[in-house]
Amino acid sequence: MESYELAFRMQSAATDAFDVNLEPQKVREMYGTSHFSNGCLMARRLVERGVRFVQVYYGNGQPWDTHSNHETSTRKLAADIDRPIAALIADLKQRGMLDDTLIVWGGEFGRTPVSENGNGRDHNPHGFCMFFAGGGARGGTAYGQSDDFGFKAAVDKMHIHDIHATILHLLGIDHEKLTYRYAGRDYRLTDVHGRVPRAIVG
């Protein structure tokens, strides 16, 4: 009976959490009306209700995969995400929730600085950027630098293991102690790597 009651409470609460139309008009205007805007607003509503992990994915059909029409597409995409992300950070801060909420924005690679077939950019795992906000990340800090061409990281490079270690650190987890057993041996999420750059953690 307890399981049925829990399931009912989850279903009834979810209906409310996912309905962004319950927000005041000024909040809706702050986020905007795009699909991604609604996703960011919904993320805040979920976090507000105690959901511990929320992922907001941008767009169907991989719109960031700009192998063609890169300049036009990237300007449009960047403009479309700027407002709702800024609104999410401001909204969480205004509600006193930003210090306890870590926002990680980014992807698994950047784009090459040279043209691909005249109007696109190829995948570039050697140089990309991410940002952290809230959750103990040091605000207003830029860390790392690419080479003069913007092709690969050159100063204060961070490997993906370092990014994972930093996220875990900000969540209060020592990545060197978090292990799981698989196929008869212990593994770490960061393998035998990973460092936390103190310059970007509070």
Rg result: 20 Å
Pairing-aware structural class of the strands and helices? Answer: alpha+beta
Largest beta sheet: strand ordering: 1-4
- Are there runs of 5+ residues with pLDDT below 50, and where? none
Q: How helix-rich are the residues, as a percent range?
A: 25-40%
What order do the SSEs take from the amino end to the carboxyl end, as H and E?
HHHHEEEEEEHEE
Q: Calculate the mean pLDDT score and round it.
A: 92
Head-to-tail CA distance between termini: 45 Å
Strand segment tally: 8
Oligomer: single chain
**Outline:** globular
Report on the structure:
This protein is an alpha+beta fold and 202 residues long. It is built from 5 helices and 8 strands. The chain has helices at 2-17, 25-31, 35-48, 70-94, 160-170, and strands at 102-106, 110-111, 123-124, 130-134, 145-146, 153-155, 179-182, 185-188. The protein has a two-stranded antiparallel ribbon. It has a two-stranded antiparallel sheet with strand order 2-3. The chain has a two-stranded antiparallel ribbon with strand order 5-6. Helix 3 packs parallel to helix 4 (70-94).
